[in-house]
Amino acid sequence: MTAKKTLEDVEVAGKTVLVRVDFNVPFRPGGAVISDDSRIRASLETIRYLIGRQCRVVLCSHLGRPQGRVVEELRIGPVAARLSELLGIPVAVAPDCVGPEVAGMVSTLTAGEVLVLENLRFHPEEERNDPEFAEALSFLGGRMADVFVNDAFGTAHRAHASTAGVARFLPAVSGFLMARELEMLGRALDGAGRPFVAVLGGAKVPDKIVVLRQLMARVDRLIIGGGMVAAFLRARGMEVGESLLDNDDVPVAAELLSTAQSQDVEMLLPEDVVVADAFSETARHRVADVEEIPPGWRIMDIGPRTATSYETALADAGTVIWNGPMGVSEWPPFAEGTARIARALARLNDATTVLGGGSTAEAVGALGLTAQMTHVSTGGGASLEYLEGRTLPGVAALMDKE
């Protein structure tokens, strides 16, 4: 991928800067308290850099899926309040993200002040990448903003007005988070440290098929977990009970198994699994060999022998990419497989370990192991599409380095 310009490649001192951030944070039940502010924290380096250069900083983000209408529970106010606490300065909140009232608030900003615009997705034009809406976003305080900074890697795979559209009107560069995401994912894909191991979990084969094919040509080992396991076991002729399975996935899994063998890629599948008699946190559950999954039960996690085997396969890794949990990790009875993979990666002091996917990041964060990873991506879908080799519209729109 062509290198893109960053904040440090343009002059921003004293200018009005529009910054696309990813403040799509989760809330505790009831919607008043943010349960995980890591995405806000991830933006702080860029915001502080701009404040320190006396910029007038205008932040924009989506929050949730309001479907192009105003949803009171998805207003950006609580996020701005948390940002204010983290920055230690007042942060103003606009009543909308476009329009004369917003322009008036921007025009009164002084050097080093921060304004957060209202939820972008209250407007259907945002997700349609409407050019008039993109131009309105760019036109701040009675004139065009000076620079656009995209620091929202989590939405870089979307061609929306605030990710790609505004770059048609403003000089567009990456923020520090975006730059680090691209650097670390690119470094991981290069697989300079060998063996190069990919760990893929999550729900279904179709979600990962393209990335599986892409990685097959690069990796030395491929470790499979999560809901995808059922398709691979069925492709090997085993019964999988009531496990999540689309019969169309089975021939794809068979093809991937054949490709791995022909390309001399070591593909590791579970030897044992944790099964349950219902898809429930309180369901009866036990460990079963993969050849002996009982009728009516379903795979919920990898088993202890499998976790040990996977730990061994990771022990000498030089590069690891991990996307997707090993089981239903949000439920404690089925979280141990994911936890053991996380701890195995945390022990790899000399390896490059790059994690993608919201569920994976949440699981590692809950274990207090985020700092022990080389990089934990803030983008689930974006990181997956990057690994698939796709062009990300939010990245493609940025200016190239000369």
Structural class assignment? alpha/beta
Mean pLDDT: 92
Tell me which CATH architecture of the largest domain applies here.
3-Layer(aba) Sandwich
Strand content: 15-25%
What is the helical fraction, as a range of percent?
25-40%
Give the tally of β-strands.
Answer: 17
CATH topology of the largest domain: Rossmann fold
Within CATH, the superfamily of the largest domain carries the name: Phosphoglycerate kinase, N-terminal domain
Q: Report the C-alpha radius of gyration, rounded.
A: 23 Å
Which oligomeric state applies? single chain
Q: How many structural domains can be distinguished in the coordinates?
A: 2
Our count of helices gives: 15
Taking pLDDT < 50 over at least 5 consecutive residues as the criterion, the unreliable ranges are none
End-to-end Cα distance, whole Å, is 13 Å
CATH class of the largest domain, named: Alpha Beta
Describe the overall structure.
34% of the residues lie in helices and 16% in strands. The protein has 402 residues and is α/β, with parallel strands linked by helices. The longest helix is centred in the middle third of the chain and has 15 residues, at 176-190. The model has no long low-confidence stretch (mean pLDDT 92).
